Amino acid sequence: MTDAVTLFGIRHHGPGCARSLRRALETLQPDCVLIEGPAGSEPLLAHLADADMQPPVALLSHAVDDPQLAVFHPYAEFSPEWQALQWATQAAVPVQFIDVPAGISLAWQQQARRAEETAADIDEAASDEEAVVDETTANLPHDPLDWLAHAAGYDDGESWWNHMVEERGDGEGLFEAIAAAMTELRTHAPQRLRGDEAQEAIREAHMRSLLRDARKAGHARIAVVCGAWHVPALAASVTAAADKAVLKGVDKLKAQTTWVPWTYRHLARRSGYAAGIAAPGWYDHLWRQPANGSRAIGWFARVARLLREHELDCSSAHLIEASRLADTLAALRERPAPGLDELNEATRSVICMGDDAPMRLIAERLMLGDALGSVPSAVPTVPLQRDLEAQQKRLRLKPEALSRALDLDLRNDNDRQRSQLLHRLALLGIEWGRLGAVGRSSRGTFHEVWQLAWEPSFAVELIVASRYGHTLALAATARALEQARAANRLSELASLIDRVLLANLPDAVEQVAAELQARAATDADPLALLGALPALANVYRYGNVRQTDVAQVAQLFDSMLLRASLGLPLALADLDDEPAAQAREQILAADRAVELRQGESQQQAWQHALHIVAHADSGTPLLRGLCSRLLLDAAVLPLDEVRRQLSQQLSPGAEPLPAAQWLDGFLNRNATVLLHSDALWALIDEWIAGLGEEHFVRVLPLVRRSFAAFAAADRRDLGLRVQRPVGASRAAVTELTWDENRARRALPMLRELLGVADG
Amino acid sequence: MSTAVLRQHAEVQFAEELDQLRKVDTRQRPGNWLMSPWAVVTYLVGGRLDNGFEVSAKYIGSRRLMEIAVATLATDRALLLFGVPGTAKSWVSEHLAAAISGDSTLLVQGTAGTSEEQIRYGWNYAQLLANGPSEAALVPSPLMQAMKLGKIARIEELTRIPADVQDALITVLSEKTLPIPELASEVQATRGFSVIATANNRDKGVNELSSALKRRFNTVILPVPASEEEEVSIVVKRVAELGQALQLPAEPPALKEVTRIVRIFRELRNGQTEDGKAKLKSPSATLSTAEAISVINNGMALAGHFGDGVLRPADMAAGMIGAVVKDPVQDQVVWTEYLETVVKERSEWKDLYRAFREQA
Hints:
heterodimer; A: 759 residues; alpha/beta; 4-stranded parallel beta sheet; 3-stranded antiparallel beta sheet; 10 strands; B: 360 residues; Rossmann fold; 2 domains; 5-stranded parallel beta sheet; two-stranded antiparallel ribbon
């Protein structure tokens, strides 16, 4: 190796590395920068100078023929690669990516997928997920840093590396030290058993040959930025012929690469990105706050601000004590300065009083962070958009700005898929189609009527949505899950289930249902549970029209109904007017839902709960009346029993106001029971007639309101009914007297109109 | 020490371990500490010393928690050990004091009747009447002693102490002095002084700490046993010990029965089934390991005196419901829900389900 080449072994997304690298590049002033990234993507680097290019962003490469195959190279501001790119752009130094072209990585991914499918084609969804995994995963299947860390007495590679590299301030000799460590590691590390050894060899041969080309091109000072693991391989002297032999005949797919906005969430290891880091937010903090005494304090200050925003107490004195504890912990563990572990433990112990809930907030908002990058509008399209275009073509749905109606017959395969496509887009927040009111209400039918109108802004929304996945199905699933986690109310979750079923996303259905189940178990409010029932019942009842699997929904419905039924009597005790009125709507909706479910045991559980409410002394009168009425309508409560209750509730001893409320609930805006039961009619009549003037005036508005809710026809019938004396038969009133002669005169005309013969 | 003592103090019982640790301990010690923080942590969680001596584990659980506790005391902050009953709070506090100060006896037991004199100082009234207020008439509290000697003072059940009495601690913890206005003097804490308080985080409501006092403590929450196996083995061991002491006529319960009880306790306590598939509501009851032990003891007594000597589901149903349903309204809903959605579904738990239904 000649002096022309300087190798910088880095860790992807390491702020300490990034800082040292930046400093080293300033000193070295290379005339060519080689970076471990997909070769052939250099044209995209032109966008780096654009002000709209804000990290975190990712280079996304996908196979042209199969957008499900995709690899990402994400960069945050604290990624050494990003800093090298920035430096080179500013210094106008040529940059060359030296890793294998994306097409080769995609071909490997395809092979892996095929191998998986032949091994077990059971879990299709799982393999889809794995396709998302970054290409750099092939890098370090078992983190070799772990071996070094264990030798140094640390728990895991990440905290060791953090202490040794990222959280330190000095940069001198860093890269020599890393290179030395990695050389040692590669000589002694156990033979790796994973099948990607051949791929590693190809990648390193590719990097070496491009390095050779750069040297041939006459560059005098070449800087190479690559994963630390590869440094020894690049430094090794291998002949050009040997590398050529390795690279010969390697499969390659046609690939397309573009920039997409990225998030810190997707940089985190727990998002499934294997070269990910545990706490991007912490690295961001390390990058912004250079190593000195104020770093821990700066972190605590951010913690304090976050907690105060959420109305949790946190004073400056807390921060002082927390940083003292963090320092002492670091000393006890024989570390030069507190790391993230120490800071978190100090925060929990001093500021949060040992409580976990604020710590979760900190993990979510600070350690992970919610940064979202942006890319200039000039960059080429993303695979999600390609997927949409492909589906539009297949289903013959052209995007048109002009609004037009589309009537879909769901029995027809093509139309059903169109409906699913529109529902999926709606889940992603792209309202290309709006479902007409007719379609909504006539869910039981085979028709959906959509209003389609394509807007140019949808293209941008597609790019934004592309971070959820690179096909519509994947993206809509991921988005639905995010909504499920963010949902506040059970009813929101229930209607979300409805939407994902309509969009035919089985994975999402399963997981949203699981989320709903988990929330239902811990939600203390039975009324909230009731609120979720109608949507579920709809799904259950009409799901079959769309050939969706509803067994899980039925089970969910049953368990939620059971829970709600158990808690209902308690929840309905002594409600004020307004909550009682809300509860009435929920009970009515739930009652209809239970009817739709058409299950014997569900019906029984529900009616049992209604029975308890109807007979509870402490219950709210309105709701007790309502429950009695529902039971009467379901023919569970015998008429005699109802009569007894009515007379008890309306007896002279009862307070008039609760009695009127009870009656309101019992009548339930429906006069049929009054019209057809003389006994009940008589009881109510008696009650009203028996009220004293003062009481009458008090209950009058209530009773009037109850009666005003009846349909006009019912009210008229009631009026007629009042004219009859109590106990008189209906026939007596309907008997008519008429003049036969006058009636006859109309007959000829009628015959003519009806076209019947004389007779 | 006489052998007739029922229970030795930690510093006596583990004198040899403390000695050995001090011998090998070359690390820096905070003022007035008998050993370095590292050695204290080793004493608590156990380990093998360089000279081959084996230190037994006093606390079985996370080493990091013990490190936080020890680091807190090293920064001269007070330490508050929080946890449900039976999570070894007092045990840890005693051993910390024994290791750091060599003395675990400077103890204030917090009760509803704890007065300010027990925290600050009292008077020898004969002396007071005869000679007026003087140093000689003063009866120092354990806390005052600890301040003078630079040792660790322990306060048990801090939240049971009335709020106005708790406030007496604030000056001690922030100013590190204890004024004696009657003598126009004060006691100033010497290096090494600190306070370890324990409190039950389930009955916060008794006398919740004021935020002023809270702020002067670093809190470490001691968790319940992490796994079902660990908890079952603790319960089996304690039940056997207690059964012997109480001379219960029933034979010790089969592991199967213990496992079921522990599982019910764990599931209700954790708010989810052991397989993690379904979430549950938690009752207001503590449901500590200690209560599981007492449910089994209770059941054994019933089986021995009134049954056939073998612990049957019916014997423990009453005790179990009593342990779970502390609030007759809310907890009853939680319990019924658990019964109907979890117990009923487990085919091998049919007998248990029937026994619970009959009790209800």
